[in-house]
């Protein structure tokens, strides 16, 4: 399976602008720039997209872990916070912090944590990130 997205950039790194498009159409000429990345201008940035990808991947992986163990979640909600830090003259994504809120009938805290830790380690986005990954959770 292959997924594809395109980036087009015009101008310098600080003053230029770009847009992102994905074949699915979810991103369609979505703006990004220095200001959307390092300030608060409307648009997206690579770290936000990685955070969304990590939250989505982990949550789906956990749903499969739960299903395999015989549990059906009422709801799984995950927030991912990706940290971008300066490294030398450039930058590095140093951390992705996952915060999970789960509502899963008939599961105890220990089993939920076991399955959530397995999902954290085994989702494809976790495997590709060269960063510290943490996971905190609450179980309703």
Automatic annotation (TrEMBL):
GO terms for molecular function: peroxidase activity. GO terms for biological process: response to oxidative stress. Residues 1-22 are annotated as: Disordered. SUPFAM superfamilies: OsmC-like. This is Peroxiredoxin. It comes from Microvirga aerophila.
């Amino acid at each position: 399976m292959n997924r594809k997205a395109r980036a087009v950039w015009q101008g310098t790194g600080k003053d230029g602008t770009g847009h992102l498009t994905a074949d699915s159409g979810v991103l369609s000429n979505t703006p990004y720039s220095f200001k959307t990345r390092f300030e608060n201008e409307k648009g997206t940035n690579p770290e936000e997209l990685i955070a969304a990808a990590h939250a989505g991947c982990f949550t789906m992986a956990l749903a499969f872990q739960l299903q395999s163990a015989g549990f059906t979640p009422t709801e799984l909600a995950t927030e991912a916070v990706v940290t971008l830090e300066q490294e030398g003259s450039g930058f590095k994504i140093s951390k992705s912090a996952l915060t999970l809120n789960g509502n899963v009938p008939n599961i105890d805290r220990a089993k939920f944590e076991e399955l959530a830790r397995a999902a954290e380690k085994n989702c494809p986005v976790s495997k590709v990130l060269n960063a510290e990954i943490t996971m905190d959770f609450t179980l309703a």
